[in-house]
Design brief:
This protein is of the alpha+beta class. It folds into three domains: 52 residues, no CATH class; 184 residues, Nucleotide cyclase, GGDEF domain (Alpha-Beta Plaits), CATH 3.30.70; 248 residues, Serine Threonine Protein Phosphatase 5, Tetratricopeptide repeat. It is 46% helix and 15% strand. Strands 5, 6, 7, 8, 9, 10, 11 and 12 form an eight-stranded mixed beta sheet that branches. The protein is elongated and about 95 Å long. The protein starts with a strand and ends in a 19-residue tail after the last strand.
Length: 556
């Protein structure tokens, strides 16, 4: 059996213990399970597979003969399009030289567990471990249309996660897509052979530490969701022609390239450790079935909403592996971020979660707040108001948060009776404080508009805006300014200042849908009507043209 050097990718003759090219120690993996074994051993100590031709286990009197793998006799070979990932540790040799053998073994065990977890999470199959290198395959035994993308995602996450193993430890990876001979026969494993395997190993050997290199076919198949930069032709040992390679930079879209932003996109930088912790908590939740609570705290506009995007994407990847209740809980947590970013798929995600909840009252009630946001996004104000009112019945704390939202939806729909009931119910909670007082002032001003008390409404809005400004709650201040423009109209004496403030905050927070509503209210003709003596915006009804603003300190 040829031994492949994990350091330089050279094929060595059978029986060699060190690489003839670079002198690195060689290990050979069991053909049945991939476990390393020493030269001269006849059977694998992990699974009992024969390691030399013609080897048979001795008979034990009174015991049934062990069932040996039938890979060599019952396997079926076929040609398939597969994606191969080859990853190797960089800096492992000096790391091992300075530590006790048991510490090195413990670190390698952590690395093997980490690599297996990441590869399996993205739908790959660990083919074998070779020393401190790992080979994985996508497309065998199960093939998916986005296998190249999943392999790149796994490679990026693996080289990022390896940094936690030690200060000097890094990983590099090479990923190639092409035809290979696949032997299907062993349980949950396909044996891949062909030039693509050797080429992937040699491609990773020329990658810089901490990077992932991909072949042209892999890049073309995954460029919708992955950002690449050209790495130039790579001269690989044993290859007559240079191999064109691309360096995978980061994930820029959801699975399959959905919701990719056109044009320039700011990368997520400076929070690698925090994002890694967040992803670990997420995957632990899915694996253990136990809820974790993570708070992302920061001032408005700092970009707290961007933390939701990687988790929504991960939730979609894991969806088929979760129980119904787990998926609903994850949807409830992540979809609010999508709604506030204006993701048009958020409402569809909630509809699906609602269908999965069935008649379970706890799950149905849990989704009410998010379903209300979804209705508000598509300008179904009456539906949003009703759902927030139902959500408020859970507890007085829910009521304090949801009833002001319901009142705003009612006011935007021109329903003064609904808004007045929400105001009275908020007062009935008995809660006091500066935030509650500002909410009550906002509701009272809107009710005064619809009842024709314009002067009182104007004074009320001035008071409410001042309260929010004193509390330094920019988002609530912007919403109140938007209320003033929508309900009192663009010709009101205070409308110009309110418009400027709402536009400044919404532009800073990236709240594009609210800017569209503001522009529609200011349009000279056809956009503003009159309801009960107050101006009211005629808002768009297409789901993709309206949404709420990014997360952060921006609840509505």
């Amino acid at each position: 059996m040829m031994a492949l050097c994990s350091a330089c990718g050279t094929d060595n003759k059978p029986g060699r213990r060190f690489c003839a090219e670079c002198g690195s120690a060689l290990t050979v993996g069991c053909p049945g399970c991939g476990t390393a074994y020493e030269p001269g051993e006849r059977f694998c100590g992990a699974c009992g597979s024969p390691l030399v031709a013609g080897a048979t286990p001795p008979a034990v009197p009174g015991a049934a003969a062990p069932a040996l793998p039938t890979r060599a006799t019952a396997a079926v070979a076929e040609r398939r399009l597969v994606t191969v990932l080859f990853a190797d540790l960089v800096g492992f040799t000096p790391f091992a030289a300075e530590r006790d053998a048991e510490d090195v073994r413990a670190m390698l065990t952590r690395y093997f567990d980490l690599a297996s977890d990441v590869i399996t999470r993205y739908g790959g199959t660990v083919e074998k471990f070779i020393g401190d290198a790992v080979m994985a395959v996508w497309g065998a035994p199960v093939a998916r249309e986005n296998d190249p993308e999943l392999a790149i995602r796994a490679g990026l996450e693996l080289v990022d996660a390896v940094r936690t193993l030690g200060p000097t430890i890094q990983a590099r990876a090479g990923v190639l897509t092409g035809e290979a001979a696949v032997t299907i026969g062993a349980t949950n494993q396909g044996m891949v052979a062909g030039d693509i395997v050797n080429t992937a190993a040699r491609l990773q050997s020329v990658a810089m530490p901490g990077t992932v290199l991909a072949g042209e076919a892999t890049m073309r198949a995954s460029s919708g969701a992955i950002a690449y930069e050209p790495a130039g032709p790579q001269t690989l040992k044993g290859k007559e022609s240079p191999v064109v390679a691309y360096r995978a930079l980061r994930v820029v879209a959801e699975v399959g390239g959905r919701n990719r932003q056109e044009g320039l996109e700011a990368p997520f930088v400076g929070r690698d450790d925090e994002m890694r912790q967040l992803k670990d908590q997420f995957h632990s939740t899915a694996r253990d079935g136990r809820t974790r609570l993570v708070s992302v705290i920061g001032p408005a506009g700092i970009g707290a909403g961007d933390w939701g995007a990687p988790l929504e994407d991960a939730a979609r990847l894991l969806r088929d592996d979760l129980e119904t209740s787990d998926w609903i809980l994850l949807t409830e947590q992540f979809t609010i971020a999508a709604l506030l970013r204006g993701d048009p798929q958020a409402a569809a995600m909630l509809d699906q979660a609602r269908a999965m909840a069935g008649d379970n009252p706890a799950m149905v009630d849990l989704l009410d707040d998010r379903m209300a946001y979804a209705a508000w996004v598509v300008d179904d104000q009456r539906e949003a108001s009703a759902r927030w009112r139902h959500y408020a019945e859970w507890s007085f704390l829910n009521a304090a948060a949801a009833l002001p939202r319901a009142a705003r939806a009612g006011l935007w729909a021109g329903d003064v009776d609904s808004a007045r009931r929400d105001l009275e119910a908020t007062i009935a909670t008995g809660l006091h404080g500066k935030v509650i007082d500002a909410q009550l002032a906002t509701m009272r001003a809107g009710i005064a508009v619809l009842e024709g008390r314009t002067g009182e409404a104007r004074a009320g809005y001035r008071d409410a805006i001042g309260r929010w400004r004193e509390l330094r709650q920019d988002w609530f201040e912007a919403l109140t300014c938007l209320d003033l423009v929508l309900l009192l109209g663009p010709d009101d004496p205070d409308a110009a200042a309110a418009t400027d403030r709402a536009r400044e905050v919404c532009e800073r927070l990236g709240a594009r849908p609210f800017l569209e509503r503001l522009d529609a209210a200011l349009a000279p003709a056809g956009s503003v009507g009159n309801i009960s003596g107050a101006a009211s915006l005629t808002r768009p009804t297409h789901p993709s043209s309206s949404s709420t603003a990014p997360t952060g300190t921006m609840p509505a």
